[in-house]
Amino acid sequence: MAGTIAIKNGYVFDPLNEIKGERMDIFIRDGKIVKELSAAELKNAKVIDASGMTVMPGGVDSHSHVAGAKVNAGRMMRPEDHYKANLKKTSLTHSGSGYTVPSVYKQGYDYAAMGYTTVFEAAIPPIEARHTHEEMKATPLLDMGGYLVLGNNFFLMRYLRDGDIEKAAAYVAWMMKTHKTYGIKCVNPAGVENWGWGKNVSSLDEANIHFEITPREVIKGLTEINERLGMPMPVHLHANNLGHPGCYALTKDSLKIPDGVKTRQNMDVEWAETKMDPSRDRSVYLTHLMFNSFAGTTWGDCESGVKDIADYINNKDHVVIDSGCTPFGEATVMTGDGPAIHDLYTLTGNKWSNTDVEMECGSGVIPFTYLKSNPVHSLQWAMGLECLLLINDPWKTIMTTDSPNGGPFTKYPEVMTWLMSEAFRKQTFSECHKWANDRSELGGVNRELSLYDLAILTRANPAKTIGMVHRKGSLGVGADGDVTVYNINPQQLDPNNYEALLRTFRKAEYTVKGGEIVAVKGEIVSVPEKRTYYSEVHVEDEREKEMLADVKEWFRYYTLGFANYPTSEKYLENPTPIKVNGER
Ligand SMILES: [Zn+2]
After folding, report:
1. Residue 346, by phi and psi: left (phi above 0), alpha (psi -120 to 50) or beta?
2. Mean pLDDT of the region 425-438
3. How far is the CA of 322 from the centre of ligand 1 (A)?
4. Ligand 1 mean position, distance from CA 192 (Å)
5. What pLDDT was estimated at residue 218?
6. Phi and psi of 233, rounded to 5°?
7. Which residues are CB-contacts of 489 (< 8 A; sequence separation ≥ 6)?
8. How far is the CA of 31 from the centre of ligand 1 (A)?
9. Model confidence over 470-504: pLDDT tens digits?
10. Which among 136, 200, 346, 435 is least buried, having the fewest CB atoms inside 10 angstroms?
11. Nearest residue to 219 via CA among 199, 193, 238
12. What angle do CA 171, 176, 179 make, to 5 degrees?
């Protein structure tokens, strides 16, 4: 029976069901987790003997750059990146290449080899949604979705400036449907629009040039719209002033804006069983905290500001972050924050590309190498880990490298091991520039994450944060049959033996997706179907009509006609709309 499997005798870590390493069996029928299989079903099921091994839900990456125009720009700009990693075609799998920006096939296989089954693209410019969906469709194995970049959108800035929150909300709802996207992304609000004039914004109250709207007003407006619509996930914020010494203060002030906003997640879905309340309780999901946490005034006196932000987050309950760790080595930096990338270009002189996306947003791409010998890079390594170790509650943190900005996702095993092993961190301190130790708090941290914590940071919390717990991130009855089996015996786990941890995390013993074994010890063994999720947000027809009258009028400034703007479902693999009731 396809999608039917028994995973027996493993040590199970399922935080959403508060299962902390109990030895138990996991059963999957027709792709979904079930309580048990009948004797007849068991006879026909595949069986994995997970004795002495660790069993977790399939990995969920809630922030990665894997599809769309800027990812493809990175691929085209970097032929050298493709010499370094190649994949031969097999009877089952496509060939592929690329290290920091792998081709679509390779990235699907690489994620699955590590035990990941679900990946969300972090930034989709609306007008480029079709291209992004084409690449997501071509990425094998992974269930996917993506966030729509809206922090510098002309229509929204105009509505928000005029205080017309009703029409702004109707516009967001329509845009999600139109481009088959999942949540609201806000990148350097009001600043990217200024970049069109060669400028940026440097404070939350600096108005942008044309629309005269401030970052504070954009963040406030989008957060309000998000909850008014009942979106699955919080507003996903890439704060202003990223990558500049002293930026931590503005980051903290940005987090204060959505404090007190009442969250309202209003999805019409069937929920998998979980012991924990699966509903969303955060009003803001801040991305790549590391890049927004520099203290100091120049690159000469800069230091980590993570502690200060972590203290704030420790005392508040409305914030969840992902880390944006930098595990050293090659990266390709790519973001909708065009001016931030230009600053990096003036620092490095590396080849650089920049795009202005009509009336919507922008982006920049630049190759980058993080060196252990470089004082700032070493500090960034320490800061990334601080983001995950100084915030006490693991349910407020998600592990990422902002792939490929801090480093490619294939470096996750390194990050996971640093989090679990103080010995590994000490080893790295001994190899890198002393700023890592002198200018951060990491050296004084002896916290070592458990396998349970790790399951929160890489499965349960990314799924909960983005509102995918109804089918991802847990092993509760009704959840998708996505499971990772790592060859780690938790009874014999020795954090000092970090080489063993690294090896284990690089290649999962088994990756199971929808009840089918897709990878064994890093080898792809089957390529079942995948899905694409998006939010289908319903608002009153009348409100949509009023809003569309404005939008159509403004369409004369676009290079394409209104009728050609939407992305149709045929560009999506197994399109799976999540109905969101935007009526109050
Ligand atoms: Zn990102």
Report:
1. alpha
2. 98
3. 10
4. 15
5. 97
6. -120, 160
7. 11, 52, 53, 54
8. 31
9. 999 999 999 999 999 999 999 999 999 999 999 99
10. 346
11. 238
12. 115
